[in-house]
Amino acid sequence: MTHAELWERHKAVMPAWLALYYEEPIEIVSGSGRRVTDGEGTTYLDFFAGILTNAIGYDIAEISEAVREQLSSGVAHTSTVYLIRKQIELAEQIAELSGIPDAKVFFANSGTEANETALMLATQNRRSNQVLAMRNSYHGRAFGTVAITGNRGWSASSLSPVNVQYVQGAYRYRSPFRELPDADYIKVCVDDLRNVIETTTSGDVACLIAEPIQGVGGFSSPPDGLYGAFKEVLDEYGILFISDEVQTGWGRTGDHFWGIQAHDVVPDAMTFAKGLGNGFAIGGVVAKAELMDSINANSLSTFGGNPISTSAAKATIDYLLDKDLQANAAKRGAQLADGLRGISEEFPELGDVRGKGLMLAAEIVKPDDNTPDAATTAKLQQETKNRGLLVGKGGLYGNVLRMAPPMTLTEDETTEALEIIRDSFNSLR
């Protein structure tokens, strides 16, 4: 069956809002290392990794073996009403890695579920439905997480179970304060936070939730230290701070294991998902025990932290720690960022290169006035695919190319990708 035939079947039974990449969508049928092969036999270097989910890559023996071992027991699922050894071992490891004192862990199936859980914890603990979030943010597609998403392109409903106010600072490239030095930028954003609390809330806010680097928002981030400065204000009011590490966790940013560590602050809770399972569905929350234990009703997750997913996740963490993939993300990320900045000097359409480690973005603009150029972004994404490279797309205006390859990326593969990206920009001429 051709991709075109499969696409027709997809359109007949799948929602119209379930978007697909490329002019002619593809099916990925196999993978090895950092490369995948589609249903018509074309192989690509994968620089989006299932939206940062295949953190280690494809066909990793250690992870496959851990899953096969669990399957061989005949037990794929028990539910959390029984003890699950791998779940406990994984929770112990994440609690220690979190840096949160006296931490406890709850597992779900996705980043959306993780953030929904974090919202429930914070609002219950603070007995308030008031929430602060960042402009240009994205936290998931459920009722509560859509409500705290500060990006109109992903806000499917204006209805909300929480009262949300949005704060400045996370998307610096188009901020009214973008020209300020880092220290001054942080100061005006902190002043804005305080003003929002004092003028648009009743003061007893439950939490601020923020992505250290905004994912769907186009890998945008503030200067290091902003969220540390925010935390000082939040502590004055007793407001909890939740770091959404769904895309920034597990060493992907290179310099730190968690994205929030760049801001020299320990949050009250962190949410996680995506890369933890290297393709297996898992998410969760790690939080200080007082916060985690504040729910006074029955609650569980039927599939969250199941034996298969936790076996895969434990093997994934062990692999990335044993191989020091955080250090590799820093090295290859620096190589990729330098190459992209070189391309930006040749092509004014590449208006901004940003991100950290192997979480990098290229914002595409119209050179004459620096306005977002979604059409050229789509063309570049198609051109890279035609040349054998898969990259993501995002940003508030759909004009950002997102690059987040598996953290096992090699130097030669990085060079290969940069050559394809440069050739794709050349196609614009």
TrEMBL record:
InterPro entries: Aminotrans_3 (IPR005814), PyrdxlP-dep_Trfase (IPR015424), PyrdxlP-dep_Trfase_major (IPR015421), PyrdxlP-dep_Trfase_small (IPR015422). This is alanine--glyoxylate transaminase. PANTHER family: ALANINE--GLYOXYLATE AMINOTRANSFERASE 2, MITOCHONDRIAL (PTHR45688:SF3), PTHR45688. CDD domains: OAT_like. It comes from the Bacteria. Belongs to the class-III pyridoxal-phosphate-dependent aminotransferase family. Homotetramer. Keywords: Aminotransferase, Pyridoxal phosphate, Transferase. It is an enzyme of class 2 (transferase). Its EC number is 2.6.1.44. Its cofactor is pyridoxal 5'-phosphate. One of its GO terms (molecular function) is pyridoxal phosphate binding.
